[in-house]
Amino acid sequence: MANQENLPLYDKIWIKRKFQRAIDILILLLLFSLLSFRLFSIINNTFTIPWLLAFSCESWFTFTWIVILNAKWCPAVTKTHPNRLLQHRVQELPRVDLFVTTADHVLEPPIITFNTVLSLLALDYPANKLACYVSDDACSVFTFYGLVEAAKFAKFWVPFCKKYNIQVRAPFRYFSQVTKSEEGSSEFKQEWLQMKDMYDNLSRRVEDVTRNSLSLKFEGEFAVFLNTEKRNHPSIVKVISENKDDLPDGLPHLIYVSREKKPNYEHNYKAGAMNVLTRVSGLMTNAPFMLNVDCDMVVSNPKIIQHAVCILMDSKKGKDVAFVQCFQQFYDGIKDDPFGNQWVAAFEYIIRGMGGLQGPYYGGTNTFHRRNAIYGLDPHENHYGKKGKLSEKASIKQFGSSNEFVKSVTHAFEGSDYSTSNGISPSSFIDSAIQVSDCEYENGTSWGNQMGWLYGSISEDVPTGLNMHRKGWRSECCTPDQTAFTGCAPGGLLTTMVQQKRWASGLTVVFFGKHSPVMGILFGIRAMDSFDSFCDLHYTYITRVSIKRAIIKKETPGSIASGDNADAGRFTFDESPAFMVGTTVLLVQLTALVVKIVGLDLEASSGNGCGLGELMGSVYLVVCYWPFLKGLFARGKYGIPLSTIFKSALLSLIFVHFSRIGVIS
Ligand SMILES: O=c1ccn([C@@H]2O[C@H](COP(=O)(O)OP(=O)(O)O[C@H]3O[C@H](CO)[C@@H](O)[C@H](O)[C@H]3O)[C@@H](O)[C@H]2O)c(=O)[nH]1
Ligand SMILES: [Mn+2]
């Protein structure tokens, strides 16, 4: 019998998809024939600008398709074995620091954030190995208040979840799924009612306080928030709760961090926040691994850390893994989502495909990182130690001027656990934590530049992940049967537009920036999206096939609407001109179909008319615009406003009129 100790903690299984390959090749052939058609057409025609644009865009699409094929064609899944981890290595289970970022208490209400935090505090993992750090870029007293209250509730909620092995540990998700305590022992029913009551109380209190700031007194621990402004305030670091006795079945530490902000100081968005959390946690708990989640993600598989740790701790394959990426999955998404916000195809094909190569890209959330990789080591240095010890001067230059922090980096490099087990608790590091959260701390250091989360783009995840792969690190997907994290996908057109626009502009910066993937195409699949959007825009413009996607990337709406939870699963409309385009396209297609069916097809006899191909094209487009078709007949916010329908009808009439004149003449 094999020695259990030597069994791998995870296996990688390559999967074959022959049918998919056949389809992929077919598409490639079609793309090639389109290109040759263009090339031959130039022989008979004059060279025009639209021809050039069409040809360049189609060449780009062909090129990206080839790159995508490369990524898709050796998909792999990882299979983790947490039981092996637990049977033999309980003593050695590593610490994991948990990071949550929030930046706006209006768009990201405290209730959402503290639910994320509660789902993390309730993870199935020894509580004394976990610490949860929340970065608040809004410096919001409401978020802080919510966390303080949530920590009190956690004392009851976490034991309840563990006792009854509840799987969904974010209370708002749990209570929306289990709305009655009908099943289980009478003891369970009683405790369920208590929990529900406490949770309802908690959310009501936090909501009341958020709505009416007067009821909150700026005393005691809240005093520091008096006179702070979102973009102008000193660093605030507060240990909300502490597992002082180092109990595995206690609660993880909970720490609130709001880094210093000053006008005229670049704060570097989420990347800046992540680097501050990295330093504060380095001082306080210094876990070798760090999990980062956005405040709108919740854990839906309480054993996820065990799975991820299997990958990171595997003695053979795990050594050169810098990060483990869990997929983003969504609750309450739109059924048959017209925007593709749930990324189903992307995960299933592209990301799994990359899993068989150097690994998936870093998605920005739901990711476990290796601290030493974030600190800039490459896999070789991590394994064999850094060549020659860094002099004190060099370390300060690289990591900043906190001696305490530099000391913690040395410990991290040596792989030694030095903090709480020696009886030193997080609260003894408050002063140094405040120091490393200051605006000026990073001046002249390597933070955001060669190491940590990289600056220069609002899509910090792309350059940060690329940089890891460039250094030779691998990454792995972690997809246990039970979904690891769930979040809320944008539901409406507006939220989608804002997100896509931000991604496109962020990615464009990456594409042309310092860490540009142009040098390493294979690493750059995601950043290529930026160029895609550029080509999409021009291409849709020339062909007028689907102006919808072009519009999504053109518009610049003012604010992020995050509150479309109420509309979960439904497509909503308003008076925005953005909807006019889709409605017009739909009406034109419908008119074409009616004309064909009723037999008003004047030009058919001239041999110039519409055949089966065009008919199928129109039907296909109508299917693509299904949500709009439903919108034509629905009323209220789920229906297209009458004024929009009227304007679109006018536009399509004009369009149809001129097309017919064009054809007849
Ligand atoms: O100055 C900032 C801006 C944002 N955030 C936080 O960063 C996260 C992501 O920001 P969000 O505005 O929600 O962006 P999304 O487009 O929803 O996020 C996706 O895209 C981002 C950029 O590519 C990634 O960082 C995210 O992880 C990924 O989920 C949220 O928790 C924010 O609170 C900050 O902490 N500080
Ligand atoms: Mn988000």
UniProtKB/TrEMBL annotation:
<dbReference type="InterPro" id="IPR005150">
    <property type="entry name" value="Cellulose_synth"/>
</dbReference>
<feature type="transmembrane region" description="Helical">
    <location>
        <begin position="578"/>
        <end position="595"/>
    </location>
</feature>
<keyword id="KW-0808">Transferase</keyword>
<dbReference type="GO" id="GO:0016760">
    <property type="term" value="F:cellulose synthase (UDP-forming) activity"/>
</dbReference>
<protein>
    <recommendedName>
        <fullName>Cellulose synthase-like protein H1</fullName>
    </recommendedName>
</protein>
<dbReference type="GO" id="GO:0071555">
    <property type="term" value="P:cell wall organization"/>
</dbReference>
<keyword id="KW-0472">Membrane</keyword>
<feature type="binding site">
    <location>
        <position position="108"/>
    </location>
    <ligand>
        <name>UDP-alpha-D-glucose</name>
    </ligand>
</feature>
<dbReference type="GO" id="GO:0030244">
    <property type="term" value="P:cellulose biosynthetic process"/>
</dbReference>
<dbReference type="InterPro" id="IPR029044">
    <property type="entry name" value="Nucleotide-diphossugar_trans"/>
</dbReference>
<feature type="binding site">
    <location>
        <position position="294"/>
    </location>
    <ligand>
        <name>Mn(2+)</name>
    </ligand>
</feature>
<feature type="binding site">
    <location>
        <position position="137"/>
    </location>
    <ligand>
        <name>UDP-alpha-D-glucose</name>
    </ligand>
</feature>
<feature type="binding site">
    <location>
        <position position="270"/>
    </location>
    <ligand>
        <name>Mn(2+)</name>
    </ligand>
</feature>
<feature type="active site">
    <location>
        <position position="137"/>
    </location>
</feature>
<keyword id="KW-1133">Transmembrane helix</keyword>
<feature type="transmembrane region" description="Helical">
    <location>
        <begin position="49"/>
        <end position="69"/>
    </location>
</feature>
<feature type="transmembrane region" description="Helical">
    <location>
        <begin position="645"/>
        <end position="664"/>
    </location>
</feature>
<dbReference type="GO" id="GO:0016020">
    <property type="term" value="C:membrane"/>
</dbReference>
<keyword id="KW-0961">Cell wall biogenesis/degradation</keyword>
<feature type="transmembrane region" description="Helical">
    <location>
        <begin position="22"/>
        <end position="43"/>
    </location>
</feature>
<keyword id="KW-0328">Glycosyltransferase</keyword>
<dbReference type="GO" id="GO:0012505">
    <property type="term" value="C:endomembrane system"/>
</dbReference>
<feature type="transmembrane region" description="Helical">
    <location>
        <begin position="615"/>
        <end position="633"/>
    </location>
</feature>
<feature type="active site">
    <location>
        <position position="461"/>
    </location>
</feature>
<keyword id="KW-0812">Transmembrane</keyword>
<dbReference type="Pfam" id="PF03552">
    <property type="entry name" value="Cellulose_synt"/>
</dbReference>
